[in-house]
Amino acid sequence: MTDSPVTQFGAPDAPHCDPSTARVTIIPAPLEYSVCYMKGTEHGPQAILDASSQMELYDEELDCCPIEVGVYTRPALDYRSMDHATALKITGDAVREVLERKQLPFTLGGEHSLSAPPIAAVRNYFPDLTVVHIDAHGDLRSEYEGTPLSHASIERRVVDMGIPLTEIGIRSFSPEEAEFMQTRPNVAVVWGHQLARGTAVIPWERLSKHTYVTIDLDAIDPSEMPAVGTPEPGGLHWYQLLELFRGICQRTTIVGMDVVELCPMEGQTRADFLAAKLVYKMIGYRFCDK
Question: Which of 19, 43, 242, 284 has its Cα between 20 and 30 A from that of 198?
Fold first, then answer.
């Protein structure tokens, strides 16, 4: 492993990328304010960057090196000495800066509450935006533990913006969320048990021309991804998730992405590496898939 923290995704082998010419800007967002079970998501972005230094950069499936499209990693956002609302604001500001350069923003969390400002920023550039949310949890509560900014309320904020939402892999849902979903025709859910039994029908027709994809790592089976704050039994497997994401890329233009909720486990790096590899595959499918 490297002796010092990695600052560029894929370093040291990744080619230098000027921030002004990048096609993708990675935004490390070590945000942790509303976690309610296992803490540590603030260390997720750095763990992903560190693990990325151990990846081979050639993608045998795509027959290319996705890093060569131009991937720049900006310095991690500094949330010290600020409240949750302010932290979310500077996250949105960082995404807007990337969009102003006509680049794709890719945010690394951090807890899931960080996704709302990036989605709002992207929607300002792409008014027809749809959101695909891949997760174990619905995250549709009006508020949780007294705050509407909670990680358990992120997708409710998306619905509040009037953005069509498709949730995939859900296997933990509250009665409040179930009732809410039934009254909202712009919310569709593909349940985890449907995916497991092969009966799932992905509503591809709901995707607009432009889509934002947010992936909570607890969407993945905990036997493969144990390092999350709120694990749930079952879940997507590695190639199943890749096939799902590739299917999204083939049907719409992804204009913003995030991967959130990595909670690194001391002495174990396999989950960090999976997260880093997922980020790299997502970039590859978005820009290199023929």
Answer: 284
Contact assessment for residue 140 and residue 181, using Cβ atoms and an 8 Å cutoff: yes
Query: What tens digit of pLDDT does each residue of 122-132 get?
Result: 999 999 999 99
Q: How far apart are CA 113 and CA 31, in angstroms?
A: 8
Dump pLDDT digits (tens) for 232-268.
999 999 999 999 999 999 999 999 999 999 999 999 9
Q: What angle separates helix 44-52 from helix 270-288, to the nearest 10 degrees?
A: 70
How many angstroms separate the Cα of 106 from the Cα of each of 61, 186, 212, 271, 289? 22, 25, 10, 19, 18
- The answer to whether the beta carbons of residues 111 and 35 sit under 8 Å apart is yes
Architecture per CATH, domain 24-288, reads as 3-Layer(aba) Sandwich (3.40)
Tell me which amino acid residue 168 is: I
Q: Where is pLDDT greater, at 38 or 196? A: 196
Distance CA 140, CA 220 (A): 19
- Tell which residue, 203, 188, 240, has the closest CA to residue 219: 240
Q: What pTM does this model have?
A: 0.95
